[in-house]
Amino acid sequence: MSPRLRASAGERRANDLAALGGRIEAALTAALGIGAEEVRAAALAAMPKRSGRLAASLFAEDEFPDLSVAVGTHLAHGRQLEFGTRRMAAKPWLRPALAQTRMTVIAHIRRALDDTIRRAQAGQS
Question: What is the domain extent for residue 111?
Answer without folding.
Answer: 31-121
